[in-house]
Amino acid sequence: MIAEKKRISKYSSCLNFTANALARVMTNISDDEFGRLGLTASHAFVLKEAIENPGIQPKELSGELHLTPSTITRLIEKLELKKLVERKIEGKHTLVYATEKGITMLPDIKKAWDNLMRRYADILGDESSRKMTDMLYGAVKALGKDS
């Protein structure tokens, strides 16, 4: 019997379809890596920013991570429940700080991030994964500038 070729989706020429399919695949890989820490990738990136930028404001997190303010708030609330970050109000500003417990997770977060990048680079190749990342982020900036 002849091996059946993998079927190409009739939607594969649509950037929206392909980007969402890629996002699902990447989410599965990142859930595997960051899940070992009891975090999603988004939680880990918020925590990493709070560690590296003590007193960061949610608005800054929103811009850096390309997430809506309401999503940032939900992520911070979940991290607070885990006692990994805390919010402090100073005047009109809410500031986010990593707790000591959160700070101790930074090496593990960096390792999970490295593992994530290594996993897809091993499949796609280092150069291809760098080029693809640059191209996709360029598209994010160009298409998202009006939203």
Automatic annotation (TrEMBL):
UniProt cross-references to PANTHER family, sorted A to Z: TRANSCRIPTIONAL REGULATOR, MARR (PTHR42756), TRANSCRIPTIONAL REPRESSOR OF EMRAB OPERON (PTHR42756:SF1)
Domain HTH marR-type: 1-145
Domain of life according to the entry: Bacteria
The keyword Cell cycle appears for this protein: no
Organism lineage: Bacteria, Pseudomonadati, Bacteroidota, Cytophagia, Cytophagales
Keywords assigned by UniProt, alphabetized: DNA-binding, Transcription, Transcription regulation
Presence of keyword Transcription regulation: yes
Protein name: MarR family transcriptional regulator
Gene3D superfamilies, per the entry: Winged helix-like DNA-binding domain superfamily/Winged helix DNA-binding domain
One annotated GO molecular function: DNA-binding transcription factor activity
